[in-house]
Amino acid sequence: MKLQHYIGGLENLEPSSFEKRVFVQPWEKRIFGIHVAMMALSNHLDAVKSVPTQFDSFWTWGHLRKGAEGMNPFDYFKYRYYEKWLGGISGFYLESGYISAGELNSRTGLYLKDINASLPEVQNSAIDAQVVEYLRTGDSPACHAAVQPKFKAGDVVTVRNPPPVEHCKLPGYLRTKKGIIDEVYEGAYNYYFPTGDGIGDPMPIYNVVFNSHDIWGNLTEPNTKIYVQVFEAYLEDRDQ
Amino acid sequence: MANSFDREEYSAARVKALESLLIEKGIITAQTVDKVIEFFEKDMGPFNGAKIVARAWVDPQFKARLLADTPAAIADMHFPRGMAGAEGENMRAVANTSQVHNLIVCTMCSCYPWPVLGLPPYWFKDPTFRARAIREPRKVLKEFGLDIPESVEVKVWDTSAQIRWFVLPERPAGTEGWTETQLAAIVTPESMQGAAKVVVPAETKTQGESE
Q1: Are residues B74 and B166 located together in one domain of the fold?
Q2: Domain final residue pick, A139, A157, A186
Q3: Which of A11, A110, A117, B97 has its CA 20 to 30 A from that of B192?
């Protein structure tokens, strides 16, 4: 199992922080912006074909999440949210050969000596226009594939328990649990790439409601329901 | 670096090194990151969600449409282009009432409806919140200052597929006759994720009464 898939429900944790800031360090904005730019310049987007960027990779939320889920689980909890992004994204650039470890280390040393040293002055309005255009149009996972939903509202379903994969969209606490289809979402939804446990191709998604007693037993709180949007591939009929 | 190692200084230098190399290699430009940040400061942020909530509070027909077909209702409002853009492709609103309290969580990552709420705050991204909110939401909410009686049903929404949820909070008492602008000013991002209620600040109360 991967601990990162089983975060929901972990016990013995301290009180939750109610830190309302989005960024707690100024540098965090930079890695956030870099990630957004990568998604906006990803080579799977049609609009990017005419954009003069040297970025030629497939990069989505799925890739960032896969990196975080692939971390040593104990390290995962040591690093703050954007520290994980920084590690994952710089790792990607090194592994893909865009930059070398030597370059990154020596440039890091330069900025460690003087963090106010300026950035290179390179302008290219076509790249920036695509990044903003991506933010305005998105990359919708909804598709018009003709798929017939296997379940209807009110059906009792059991969540499958597929073997662990690098990256998945099934919260661990739901595995093998029974829920009721609350709503069948219109249309079909793909995922950025096949994860190996069933999702990727266009398929229906459902809003499934679970009684918290059925999931947490005597650890539950009263009068509580859990609603989760689940890909069809993760659900099976109650009789199977 | 061993003794004087400062985690934040190192990350700041590392990310700046990365950004400068990406600029030099023609992947992004010197303005790209600033454009992204500016987009979330000016165009897409919780100020949009607050206007939607205020409209729903004063217009029952709009509220009904918002809950039945969230994207269509939002499209009727005059926001900058992009309300169905990145992380807003499939948004849905869910209403708090005197009988139901909704709380949104993303246990496996940090999915968040950017066009209406902007970027997720740290509490929402914190693994501790993500671990606990799905199992002991009342206890977590109590730590956040919100006491939900047992008679009120708690619905926790785990955003683990492609739908981005946000909460239409309850309109607080003492806001009768307020304009949409006045109402929007008291709606917080936390209230639109179910982590807080909308309250009338003491000074606003006095202002309201004197008007």
Answers
A1: yes
A2: A139
A3: A11
Cα dihedral B32, B36, B41, B44 in deg (nearest 10): 150
pLDDT of residue B202: 84
Same domain, yes or no, for A17 and A128? Answer: yes
Could you say which of B4, B111, B151, B191 is catalytic? B111
Last residue of a domain, one of A84, A113, A139: A139
Number of folded domains that form chain A = 2
Task: Say yes or no to pLDDT of B210 above 50.
Answer: no
Range of the domain at A191: 143-237
Q: Do A133 and A88 lie in a common domain?
A: yes
CATH of the domain at B128: 3.90.330.10
B98 annotated as a binding-site residue: no
Query: Which of B155, B70, B164 minimizes the C-alpha distance to B110?
Result: B164
**Which residues pair with residue A231 across a beta bridge?**
A205
Q: What percent of chain A has pLDDT over 90?
A: 91
> A-chain residues within 8 Å CB-CB of B33?
29-30, 33-34, 37
ipTM score for this prediction: 0.95
- What CA–CA distance (Å, rounded) separates B194 from B197? 7
Question: Could you tell me if A153 and A129 lie in one domain?
Answer: no
Alpha helices by DSSP H, chain B:
7-24, 32-42, 46-58, 60-68, 70-75, 114-117, 122-125, 127-133, 137-143, 180-184, 202-210
Q: Residue A205 above 50 pLDDT?
A: yes
Contacts of B84 in chain A (CB under 8 A): 138, 140
Do residue B19 and residue A34 have CB atoms under 8 angstroms apart?
yes
Residues of B whose CB is below 8 A from A6: none
Catalytic residue at B4? no
B22 and A34 in contact by Cβ < 8 A?
Answer: yes
| Total number of domains constituting chain B | 2
- pLDDT digit string (tens) for B127-170? 999 999 999 999 999 999 999 999 999 999 998 778 999 999 99
Please answer yes or no on whether B11 and A86 come within 8 Å at the CB atom: yes
The answer to whether residue B11 is catalytic is: no
Q: Can you tell me the distance from the alpha carbon of B19 to that of A150, in angstroms, rounded to the nearest whole number?
A: 47
B20–A142 CB contact, under 8 Å: no
Contacts of B153 in chain A (CB under 8 A): 223-225
Do A16 and A130 fall within a single domain?
yes
- From B20, B109, B151, B191, the catalytic residue: B109
B203 within domain boundaries: yes
pLDDT of residue B207: 52
- Identify which of A30, A104, A205 has the shortest CB distance to residue B161: A205
**CATH code of the domain in which A22 resides:** 1.10.472.20
Q: Which amino acid is at B160?
A: S
Q: Which chain B residue lies closest to A8 (C-alpha atoms)?
A: B131
Which of A99, A67, A190 shows the shortest CA–CA distance to B20? A99
Active-site residue flag, B20: no
